Please model this.
Amino acid sequence: MTGVLGIAVIAAQVSASPTASAAGGLRYQRGYSVQQGWLCYGWSNGAYHCTHHWHRSGGTLVSDNPAWVPNAGRATAAAASRGAPAPSAQVSANTSGEPCRSGQFFSGANSQWQTPPSCYAGIYWINPANYVYRPSFGWCNWWPEVMNPGRPNLLWGGYPRGAAPRAGATVVFAPGVQGASSAGHYARVVAVAPGGYWMLVSEMNFWWRGGGFARVSYRYIHTGSGISFIY
Model:
């Protein structure tokens, strides 16, 4: 884990300048590469993640920390040695119960505060009568709870948790992370972009672009420290 956190600062530096050298001789390369024992993946927008937690399986490079270095499509060892672009992969999505159900989840290069396309740019007032009863209507926890009607006590009931995003999973934000308040925040994963780094989420009581109490809005977030998921 210390290796992953150590490379996070390097990734931020390279994002600003994709051709810059990283500490320890690691350099940005688009796609997969193996450098000094690290498995690295570089996105086309310059973001760059590396991990010591990986292995080879039948000539294939496998990340053991897919929330940080994705396995989408899996790169072959030969492709990684050439710094080849990431293999193509399909968007993973779950729009069940959402006020917007467009198939257009991502457009262009994603960024943290880019307005999503199509009806995901909208702000939606929610009628609680249309959902299973849960207390705390209007607050952020209410939304993922009613989106999982068959899973009572979703947030505290001992359901599986992890660091890899899945469509339909509940996002748990640590306090102050990616726009969360000092009390933390909850949201729901609508779609995961190829590579597993960016995702589109729906959330209630998030005050941005006209969102807020009792309203559902959409935005982009990414995997990283302080972000976990309930499956």
Notes: The first helix runs from residue 2 to 16. Residues 1-23, 73-88 have pLDDT under 50 and may be disordered. Residues 2-81 form one domain. Helices lie at 2-16, 77-81, 142-146.
